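Q: Hi! First time doing this. I have a protein sequence and I read that you can turn it into a structure. Is that right? Here it is:
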Amino acid sequence: MKRVAVIGCGIIGLTAAIRLQKAGYHVQIIARDLPPTTTSNKAAAIWEPYKAEPKDKVAQWSAETYDRYVSEYKIPAAGVSEVELIAVSKSSLPPPFWLRPAYPFRRLSPGELPAGYQDGYAVMVPFIHSGRYLDYLLQHFATKGGDIALRHLSSLADIGPGFYAIVNCSGLGARTLVRDEKVYPIRGQLAVVSRPGPARFIVDDTSYADPVYVLSRDNVCILGGTAEERSDLGDEDRDTREIILARCRVLDPALADSIFLRPVVGFRPGREEVRLEVDPEATSPRIVHNYGHGGAGFTVAWGCANEVIRLLSE
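A: Yes, that's right. Below is the predicted 3D structure, encoded as structure tokens:
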């Protein structure tokens, strides 16, 4: 059985590893961090293509991932369910580029729009409880015979011999691991506040670069947020917190009496385009790069894992 090393144990690495197992490879994950301390664990994890290019490929990868999540709705351990994504705008809002006829989609009536908003739509999409889902994938990987090496790599040469292929899902780590200067951090700051209620997601799509959203889950609300490109500030910014709270209370006035619980700061792996390709300079072992997914890691993960298999089979 051919051995494959997968670098990284976030959502991109885990889905690639499981898909490789299904294709008949023996897989070892090599990672510095494991759930629950990966960047993926901090994700709000709503299926919605965001901050990833190119759009045509992202739409295809997203569609394949959507279908996978729908198949997991009835698996309690997976933590995947369906939620209505409500997108509103203070100007005209065209249908999203990723829309397919199969997605339950409708336009909002004027009475459904928050005050000050002019247009909007609703579409049913998968909602992934990131922590539960990553644990579910990790257990699935282990039960299928996968193994994990917890260590830091300075370069792909540190992996050692004996592998037919290496799949590089190192996210932001690709900046140093393969010296890719096109990779940069997209800082996301969120606020978690109290508010019991059913799962619900509403997003202000007026500005693609300036996200405002409210996600209800687990009897709290996750309020977003920021998308600060090339910022590496790891601590919460208190002024930014107040801006997030104020903007989200306009979007959803029911948050007026909510209580701030804690901040969340994470870094999305930004790149001008997702790098998903065979390294032309590597022949033994073969190297497939799979990183730079921006804010769409959970949205494109399974589609990208399928692409990894296609690339290795060529």
